[in-house]
Amino acid sequence: MMCKRQICSVILLVASAMAGGISGNADALSALQDTGVEGAVNAFIAREGKRSRCSEYKDARIIVLGNLDPNRSSNDGRSDVAVQYTLEDATGRSNNYTFYLAVFLNEGGKYVYKTHRQIGGKNDRDVTLKSIEGGKILVDTMGYLPNDPSCCPSQKGQTEFGLVDGKLKEFRKVSKAPASGSGGGLSPVSPESGSGCETPRTGEFQRTRTKP
């Protein structure tokens, strides 16, 4: 049986920390609640879940703060939000799950949804949102080696995302292959693709494995 916490990490890019299993300080959480960003994020994820007939594993949601707008000074006192979120099959017909990353920019003190994209999932890769640094969103990854079971990818890596023409782009992929394992980076899935909650996707970095 797969670990619930492991398979349901969520990535949603937001400029402050919010409720629902987030890591962030109390001041950041309070600021988000005061500006209504939590409601905006919850509403966005609810719409995506309804559209794709999936449900969010909210306890795994991760939120980080930082400046993602290249046209704005980094010391203007405003932070954008990055959020990792996970959608799971809500039909009961499978145990598929997909990781997403979404961005909300701080525009005049109001958090506005900008974009989102799929960044991993079952049989693709596990991901953990870490921070925003230098205008980039930093993410740790765990990719699948050929004999890894679906529950347990073992290839450690790192990658980063940034905004390019209003869309999230993956810039760098570094896989840390074991000494006896196969090397090579993982290729990203197409941005803003389907949820994969009902039918397993064939992602560009999905690998064939020999165990269930």
The main sheet comes to: 6 strands, mixed
Helicity level: 10-25%
Number of folding domains?
1
Mean pLDDT: 73
Low-confidence stretches: 1-25, 179-195, 198-212
| Count of strand segments | 10
Please tell me what the overall shape is.
flat
The CA-CA distance between the termini, in Å, is 10 Å
Structural class based on helices, strands and sheet pairing: mainly beta
Q: Number of helical segments?
A: 3
Short description:
This protein has 212 residues and is mainly beta. The chain has helices at 4-7, 26-35, 37-52, and strands at residues 10-12, 54-56, 61-66, 80-89, 97-107, 110-121, 125-133, 136-143, 155-164, 167-176.
Would you give an account of this structure?
- By secondary structure, the chain is mainly beta.
- The chain has one domain.
- The protein has 3 helices and 10 strands; from the N terminus they run αβααβββββββββ.
- The chain has helices at residues 4-7, 26-35, 37-52, and strands at residues 10-12, 54-56, 61-66, 80-89, 97-107, 110-121, 125-133, 136-143, 155-164, 167-176.
- The longest helix has 16 residues, at 37-52.
- The chain is flat.
Lay out the secondary structure.
Blueprint: H1 4-7, E1 10-12, H2 26-35, H3 37-52, E2 54-56, E3 61-66, E4 80-89, E5 97-107, E6 110-121, E7 125-133, E8 136-143, E9 155-164, E10 167-176
Parallel strand pairs: 1-3
Antiparallel strand pairs: 1-4, 2-4, 3-4, 4-5, 5-6, 7-8, 8-9, 9-10
